[in-house]
Design a protein that fits this description.
alpha+beta; 22% helix; rod-shaped
Amino acid sequence: MSSDSQHGTAAAQRFKKPTWRDPRLVVGLLLVLTSIVAVVLLISTLNRTEPYYVAAHDLSVGQSVSNDDLVPVDVRLQDASQQYVSAETDLKDNDVLVQRVPKGQLVPTNAVGTADELDRSPVGIALETPLPAEARAGSRVDVWVAEQKASGRGYEKPRKLVPGAEISKIETTNSALGSSTGTTVHVLATPEQVEPLVDALGNSAKVTLVLNPSGDDS
């Protein structure tokens, strides 16, 4: 056989159409399938949602929390999953809110604790002066107190008793005709602030809440 014929035969073998028995074709198909499966699994992982709790209504500091206060929703948190309460979590009978959670927001894991962990307690203040229009649950206010004079006539110079207190809840009392007759604001006070605040309220002191947008507690 001539050299030209041998070269032609070799070239034909090199360019011969591969068959299913060709190991190179099998390996190539396996690599393609592996890549496709890896991409599908990655997309599935990134789009995976899990059930977590959101507040069914505004949750105030100090209140007990149960399944009735929460709504499970499917969300995709990925790396932030440990920061929020899973809907698969079993709530305990003594669980309370140690941090306010507005309606519709995810419940942070550090917002749920026990009564022993509370470092602030809500104190109700019935206001005689109007509450700032911008004030709402979660706002910060300074609690100013003017003690009643010993003579019973007039008040002493007002002093800032509780700086940067967080409003826990606002309650408005309505008359039978629907008009507002009074407002009680629950502010969160530390154990050291509770006694003087309650004492002032019990001695007919005049209490005024001043909005503190910065939350400065000094």
